[in-house]
Amino acid sequence: MENKKLKPYLLVIDDDETHREGMALLLEDEDYQVDQADSAESAMELIRRNSYDLIITDYKMKKIDGMELLKMINDYDPLLKVIMVTGYGSIEHAVEALRLGAFDYMPKPIDPVKLKEVVRRALKVQGWKQPEREAIPLHFGEIVGQSRPIKQVVQKIRKIANIDVPVLIYGESGTGKELVARAIHQASDRRGGPFIAVNTGAIPKDLIVSELFGHEKGAFTGATEARKGKFEEADGGTLFLDEISTMDEATQIALLRVLETHQIERVGSSRSLEVNVRIVAASNKDLKEFIEEGRFREDLYYRLNVYRIDLPPLNERTGDVPMLVEYFIRQFNAKYNMQIASIDSQALEILQNYAWPGNVRELRNVVLNAMIQAKDRIQIKDLPPFVLKPGPQEIRFRAGMSLPDIERLTIVKTLKMVGGNKLKAAELLGISRKSLYNKLEDYQIKDEEYQSD
What we know:
The structure is a single chain. Helices cover about 45% and strands about 15% of the residues. The protein is an alpha/beta fold. The chain has four domains: about 10-135, 3-Layer(aba) Sandwich (Rossmann fold); about 145-310, Rossmann fold (3-Layer(aba) Sandwich), CATH 3.40.50; about 315-390, Orthogonal Bundle (Helicase, Ruva Protein, domain 3), CATH 1.10.8; about 405-450, Arc Repressor Mutant, subunit A (Orthogonal Bundle), CATH 1.10.10.60. A five-stranded parallel β-sheet has the order 2-1-3-4-5, with helices on both faces. A hairpin with a 2-residue loop joins strand 6 (about 140) and strand 7 (about 145). It is globular, with a radius of gyration of 25 Å.
């Protein structure tokens, strides 16, 4: 029988039985499913066996304290949110816990109202909206995956969310830059404000200033009424500027001024307006190259690049493909009233071996296309021809690489592409499995170089 999680699943950890059971009863009254552990050791055993949505742990415990447990949880699953509780608290402990990624920090005796509010907030940020969430073991908002690269992205989001500075996101087209920007917004104190996304590359250059800053009536031909720009719409929230490299110099200068003064002027107005907006920008181009070519202002780059997040292409986290496919199947079933149960294992294997030049966006489109073709589950015959017969896989070389370096890179990329399956890698490379093992030893290629989790 399929097991569907109908309520949030919490774990309360405290070696004081009275306090532990008191918190558990309080949370059970809120209709949460709650487990208890009396030590860090027993807690980690439960965490490895179950899919918890939130951990609440005491700070002072025998043998392993709450701070060490927090580190262990972060190492095991950096997406798990942890609330630290202590009767021996101090500002130093609070700062250290938050630095290590704790969601919040609460002193004993516990205020029941405060505890309930913090738990509700943590679950909301964690994305508790889907009753079948455990089918996706690890996800953060709409960011799905449990590979090492995607865990690192989520860790960065969690660290920067409540530090109200500009963020610059780099990634190939289709890697999910807007999803990361939304996750930053939802995890921040600005979550109650608007999230406004603008693809600056899709706006004609003669309209972009008006689009961003608004205009007054009569400011130009066709301006029949005053209109707010995206900065005003995003006031109190987050403004996501995608394809930032496409901005012309005049717009770059105007954006720099906003970052410095927190003020804008509508087109056709001389009056300055205060705006309280966090900027998250994104680019699929190397802005440093644009600076060298004189196409992007260096001062604006440093204003935007206060904190940088790099998104991995999908072919560097192929271990996440099964989870992404399952996520899209559930999403499209709900959105389009489809009844596709799952995907055949052979079809899934083909998707894992494809290079995905269009990244997650391309995978999403392939899954939707396959679901339209399928009857009850996706099979090989439902996949598009270009996935079944892909062209040569892209392997990135640089000028001046030695032949051994090229061979080493080819082996690593091929192993990544097939999810570490050495037999398949040997077949694709045209060598025996024994020869592959010899080359792995000769080149000192470690498992973590090609394994996605």
